[in-house]
Amino acid sequence: EVLLVQSGAEVIKPGESLQISCQGSGYTFSRYWIAWLRQRPGEGLEWMGMTYSGDSDTRYGPSFQGQVTISADTSINTAYLQWSSLKASDTAMYYCARVRGFYFDYWGQGTLVTVSS
Amino acid sequence: DVQMTQSPSTLSASVGDRVTIDCRASQSVSTYLAWYQQKPGKAPKLLIYQASTLETGVPSRFSGSGSGTEFTLTISSLQPDDFGTYYCQQYNNYVLTFGQGTKLEIK
Q1: What is the pLDDT of residues A51-101, one digit of tens each?
Q2: Which of residues 17-76 of A touch B (CB under 8 A)?
């Protein structure tokens, strides 16, 4: 069974850094892209970017280039989404998802990030 | 970026109704179009990919059609469990984009 398990909810102050994670199991992690998607409260889905851990190729959506860092560690089947300085506008649910043919076939349960002073 | 526009934004229908949700792309995406269902507080679920291919395990009352810029998701006979928000997503362009969503409510 394919599973993506994300790290727990975070409450962070503006300006702080953060890394959240997504661990895959039940498939060969290094053979698939893993994407990160954002969903702000009451809003739709936005693709942030994705990484292919087999060769470390990483792509970002235009709105997220330079704002976040996506990476992966194939030794522990885990992908990461990192911010160096969070803003209130980063408050959202973040999902990781396995990419198949550039659509998303399996999703993590989501990580709620709340940025508040 | 390819802009995806769904209609309607909200929809209320009765059990047994035939329901259609439209998705329009700002430029041709061929058949590189997927549909997802999201229930409140849950991650989205893949329903259809390649515009018309049903994902394994998805009930056959769901179907997709279209190509180029015009696509439709159809639920042939609405069931109580079909409430939620539906999203289309194009993957023809390397910048992957979603429609704004259609919220489906059961009367």
Answers
A1: 998 888 999 999 999 999 999 999 999 999 999 999 999 999 999 999 998
A2: 35, 44-47, 59, 61-62
Coil, strand or helix at B7: strand
Residue whose entry in the numeric block shows the structure tokens 């893993």: A34
Residue A85 contacts B where some CB pair is shorter than 8 Å: no
C-alpha–C-alpha distance, residues B2 and A103, integer Å? 15
- Provide the chain A residues 94-113 that lie in CB contact (below 8 A) with chain B: 95, 97, 100-105, 107-110
Count chain A–chain B contacts defined by CB atoms under 8 A.
53
Can you tell me the distance from the alpha carbon of B48 to that of B26, in angstroms, rounded to the nearest whole number? 20
Q: Give the B window 28-57 contacts with A, CB below 8 Å.
A: 32, 34, 36, 38, 43-46, 49-50, 55
Rounded CA separation A44/B85 (Å): 9
Detail the DSSP E strand segments found in chain A: 3-6, 10-12, 18-25, 33-39, 46-52, 57-60, 69-73, 78-83, 92-100, 103-107, 111-115
B79-105 residue pLDDT tens? 999 999 999 999 988 899 999 999 999
